[in-house]
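This section describes the prediction task in plain terms. A model, or a person checking by hand, is given the sequence of a single protein chain and must write out its three-dimensional structure as a string of tokens. No templates, partner chains or ligands are provided. The sample shown here is typical of the held-out split.
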Amino acid sequence: MTITVLSGLIRPLVENRLPDWVEPRFFMSKEEAMALAPEAEIGWFDMYDKKDMAAAISAAAKLQWLNSIYAGVDGMPLDLLRQRGTVVTNGAGINAITIAEYVVMGMLTVAKGYRDVVRAQDRREWLLDSPGKVELYGSKALLLGYGAIGKLVEERLKGFAVDVTIVRRSPGANSLSPDQWRARLGEFDWVILAVPATPETDGMIGAGELAAMKPSATLINIARGSVVDQDALVAALNEQQIAAAFLDVTTPEPLPEGDPLWSLDNAHVTMHLSGRAQDKMFVRAAERFLDNLGRWQRGEPVAPQVDLTLGY
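The expected answer:
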């Protein structure tokens, strides 16, 4: 029997479908997770508080395989997991559909001034003209991050006839290399961030990058708050160096009540809801986990595996 420690949130979807070689133990609190962790050989320690999650993972000294619904593994003790030889599978692609849809929603919200339309309805005021007159058609987008989410963003934007340029290491059509995109920032109407949170991407959009963007451009971040210098962004929005920012992620989260981003008319803060704007997340994660259990038993690679050196 393989002791497998799992979040109680996934229990209704997997308990009656687990193979007979799995001995499941479910937790509903940090305390329960910490108590169960030392015996776990397979673990699914997802918790909202990443520090609690990291503590439980650190306590799981026998852990051979760690599974997570989260696509980003920032906050996990990656060095420790690498030292222990633990295999890590993440939630890459689980939320890709809804997050890609969120990007399109954000672009349309900014382009059509839709927030002002909603506010007018709240005031019961009949507008005589549209507060936003931008068309996605023919606009240009720079897409940084070409994983599962990035690929779906590109696919959906092509339906709106948006000219999408991607940033990737391998050359290809409509692509820029990591050392080329900064020099071309001024060409794009939309700069979309879908990169993993790593030391390489930390603060990749700062004052210099914001100053290089078009004054009419919008920054869209569905990656992590850490990839943007938030103080520089607030300054750029205040000074209207760029037109707008659509931010599903911020630093920190939750965003403090007094943070200036809340009150900026050209900042759209969506509280890291993009991945939650669906009802299939846990179902998809459970199906993938059950499939991976079969692979694990047969000695086949589980997927998708995280490169613990690269951090994604």
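For orientation: The domain at 96-276 is CATH 3.40.50.720 (Rossmann fold).
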